[in-house]
Amino acid sequence: xxxxxxxGQIPKDGHAKREVLASGMSKRLNLTYQLIYSTSGxxxxxxxxxxxxxxxxxxxxxRNGTTGGQWFSAEQPAREYFAKVTA
Length: 87
Fold this sequence. Notes:
Elements: E1 4-5, E2 18-26, E3 31-38, E4 41-45, E5 48-52, E6 55-61, E7 67-72, H1 75-85
Antiparallel strand pairs: 1-5, 2-3, 3-6, 4-5, 6-7
């Protein structure tokens, strides 16, 4: 499997799919956080598509719409980080 391809080359069921597991607010930073599970598959990487493994993320959305956060290879560290930033 090629890890980086053009968008038109992505197999029909090859896209990574994301599911929101939890949402919370960081009172200290005034940011909305989401705990996310992402299946393995292709996802946006600039003008290309990149294959990524299954992962968990703690992603924030700022008031102006920008996003950021941290990705983890296992669920437990992601849940611990989410609990820390939304406490």
